[in-house]
Write a structure and sequence with these properties.
The complex is a heterodimer of chains A (about 270) and B (about 230).
Chain A (H helix, E strand, L loop, with lengths): L1 H23 L3 H8 L1 E6 L8 E2 L5 E2 L1 H13 L2 E6 L5 H6 L5 E2 L7 H6 E17 L14 E5 L3 H9 L4 E5 L2 H9 L5 E5 L3 H7 L5 E17 L3 H16 L2 H10 L5 H7 L2
Parallel strand pairs in A: 1-4, 1-5, 7-8, 7-9
Antiparallel strand pairs in A: 2-3, 5-10, 6-9, 6-10
Chain B lengths: L9 H39 L2 H15 L3 H14 L6 H26 L3 H9 L4 H31 L11 H12 L2 H30 L1 H6 L4
The chains are: A alpha/beta (about 270), B mainly alpha (about 230).
Chain lengths: ~270, ~230
């Protein structure tokens, strides 16, 4: 009798909390404008997308994109630092309004969040020491391959390179350290990262061996936010066409992205 | 927010959780056993050893107890590897956890050893016990009985702290949770499940230490009162 009533009390409180959450839901774009600031989740441990510069300030192409977006929206930017595995939970738990954090479009992710038009392409590769002979995924059989947990490289290799021994780290910095310190000799990561990782230990220079797939990076947001999605899509399109996003990419990555290709990929 | 709970992932991912929990148990049981042995030895040195050895043990204890476990794990895994000594993630984890456990149990066992009164040692001397017999039966076992609650708490703490080894790619319980979370995006549900598994593990450990205590301490088994 007593336990039953306590249980009822707890359940009642839980439901009250849940329904409170449901009524508090409103349109995110309106909320952002009302608050005068946008909370953008960025991983600051993925140079050159997100990093901390020598003055300890956030820098990188995702950071510059976020700054431009906040400026065009006319609100303050609040950077919410995140990590690869927690990018989507950040949205789900309303700790951020949008995610700009090397987030590739995948069908699995599209089930739980919405993506904007792609703002950059992002090939992922298997890379190793110059001396290593790796030509196809079967060459990885029995070898240790480092990945960052929860990335597209992780899920790709889990499915396609069953013979490989995947070693999973929590972020790029830890994975880079594992390669630089010699714990692993092969890593699967974004091609854009190879120069930064090779710089950590000049005796161990990385070379791209296999291109696994080209992903498209997009801005992630919660589902059922049509106004926000429309505004962001329009913004991406405009800034790809006027060259501002191309310039940001060129500054940080040293390569030109192709707006026509991206707009085509986005449909 | 309209969040809907969905535990469907457990249907095909539960073997992963079992494997993760099993690795957590293996890692921590090994580290607890080795660390406790190391700690007991160091405690004896700290109480009865010469001045140089005593200071060395003191330095070890303070260095470990005043630095984060994560840093210790990184030093073993990345640091030693940079110096050319490549240890696998599992081995690195056991070494780091053992060294950590050793430092804490040194302090706990030292307190126990120092609580044994001089008269007990004199009585052992009068009865003609050898030095080894005295240390084993008169010092160590009663000392351990006195500090056993503190020791078991520290053991359980180490089991919980072992979740940090997921950072160096050890596929233990927390790493499994992170994997499943990143595959299914059911972060809330995954961490609820893994929290429950840790609770069950803690309960199991506490029960096991209680049972071991009953086996070890005959006086407690017969009288049921603490020393």
């Amino acid at each position: 009798m007593k336990t039953a009533s306590v249980l009822r009390l707890i359940l009642g409180a839980a439901f009250a909390l849940l329904s409170l959450g449901a009524t508090a839901h409103a349109d995110t774009l309106d909320d952002i404008k009302k608050a005068g600031k946008i909370r953008i989740a960025i991983d600051l441990a993925i140079p050159p997308f997100g990093m901390t510069d020598d003055k300890m300030q956030p820098a990188g192409s995702d950071v510059d994109l976020a700054r431009l977006l906040a400026k065009d929206l006319g609100v303050q930017l609040e950077i919410v630092t995140t990590t690869g595995p927690s990018r989507i939970p950040m949205l789900q738990t309303n700790k951020a309004d949008i995610v700009v954090s090397t987030l590739s479009i995948t069908p699995d992710r599209a089930k739980v969040i919405d993506f904007s038009l792609p703002y950059a392409d992002h090939p992922s590769v298997v890379a190793g020491m110059k001396s290593a002979t790796i030509k196809e995924l079967s060459d990885l059989d029995g070898k240790k391959v480092a990945v960052v947990r929860g990335t597209t490289q992780d899920s790709d290799l889990t499915q396609k390179a069953k013979g490989a021994q995947l070693v999973r780290y929590e972020d790029d910095a830890t994975m880079a350290l594992a390669f630089a310190s010699g714990q692993v000799d092969i890593i699967a990561t974004a091609r854009s990262l190879l120069p930064a990782i090779s710089k950590k230990n000049p005796a161990r220079t990385l070379e791209a061996k296999i291109t696994m797939q080209t992903n498209y990076l997009a801005i992630g947001m919660r589902k059922d936010e049509p106004k926000l999605l429309a505004w962001v899509n329009d913004w991406v399109k405009t800034n790809l066409q006027n060259g501002k996003l191309v310039a940001i990419y060129k500054t940080h990555h040293g390569i030109d992205i192709d707006p026509a290709l991206l707009l085509k990929a986005g449909g | 927010m309209s969040y809907k709970f969905d535990f469907a992932f457990m249907a095909d991912r539960w073997p992963d959780f079992v494997a993760g929990a099993w690795l957590t148990i293996q890692l921590t049981v090994l580290s607890i056993a080795l660390g406790f042995a190391l700690g007991t030895l160091c405690a004896l040195v700290r109480v009865y050893g010469g001045p140089v050895l005593r200071r060395l043990v003191g330095a070890y204890v303070e260095a470990i107890r005043n630095t984060p476990l994560l840093i210790q794990i990184f030093i073993v895994y990345f640091g030693l590897s940079s110096l050319g000594l490549k240890l696998s993630a599992d081995v690195s984890a056991v070494i780091a956890l053992t060294v950590n456990m050793g430092a804490y149990s040194t302090e706990i066992m030292r307190a126990g050893i120092q609580s044994i009164q001089r008269t007990q040692l004199e009585a052992a001397d009068c009865l003609g016990l050898t030095r080894l017999q005295t240390i084993l039966h008169v010092v160590l076992l009663p000392a351990m009985e006195r500090v056993y609650p503190a020791l078991s708490s520290q053991f359980v703490l180490l089991m919980l702290a072992s979740s940090i080894t997921s950072q160096i790619s050890v596929e233990e319980l927390t790493a499994v949770a992170n994997n499943v979370q990143s595959d299914t995006y059911r972060s809330f549900e995954v961490y609820v499940v893994v929290a429950i598994v840790y609770l069950v593990l803690s309960a199991l450990y506490r029960f096991a230490f209680w049972a071991i205590g009953l086996g070890l301490f005959e006086r407690k088994r017969r009288l049921g009162t603490p020393l």
